[in-house]
Write the structure tokens for this entry.
Amino acid sequence: PRDKGVSLDTTGLDKDALEDMQAIFGNGEEYDWALQLEEEEQERERDEQ
Amino acid sequence: DAAVKNPVKRRRKKDEIDLEEEIDEQMADLKMAMEKACVADNEAREQGQPAVNKLKLLPKVTALLNRTAIQDSVLDPETNFLQSVKYFLEPLNDGSLPAYNIQRDIFAALARLPINKETLLSSGIGKVILFYTRSKRPEPHIKRTAERLLGEWSRPILKRTDDYKK
């Protein structure tokens, strides 16, 4: 499982704060493509060893 | 007439406006150069060449970020200089991170800036910071700075909810 980094705990936030959090930090998917590439590269490195 | 009554004051005001305009212009030029450098670096990578365009601009970028006298302009959501800074930190098309020096210098500068909600909303820089906390590629101290920034930037928003509940 992927290290999620610092978890942004949004439980119990009111709607406005939740919207602000999402608008500022995104939904966590913006750079998933790069994390995906990173994982693939690591898998290749593991296979090569 | 006003110039005769108070020539010094009038003069100073004009100088300030000139300076502001000069900074705005300087920042607009740099923003454009930064965006071009990002595109050029991606192209270089695709052709198997070293990506050096952002690195070449880095001293200019950090010089601007670190000039306390123009902090208001740097953080102005309309000028949106931090959006270009975000582009600098973004992973390249092949998923690799920008050069270590870029990460180090920009994270150090960001940690010193009093970044507010409006600047965060317009620049989107929080998204790339979140990415640095999730990626395994950055050096540990860069990751730590990213985590700290994430905490600092989200605190006022989270705190508002606490206040609201009370």
The first helix of chain A runs from residue 15 to 25. The radius of gyration of chain A is 15 Å. Residues 15-48 of chain A form one domain. The helical segments of chain A are 15-25, 32-48.
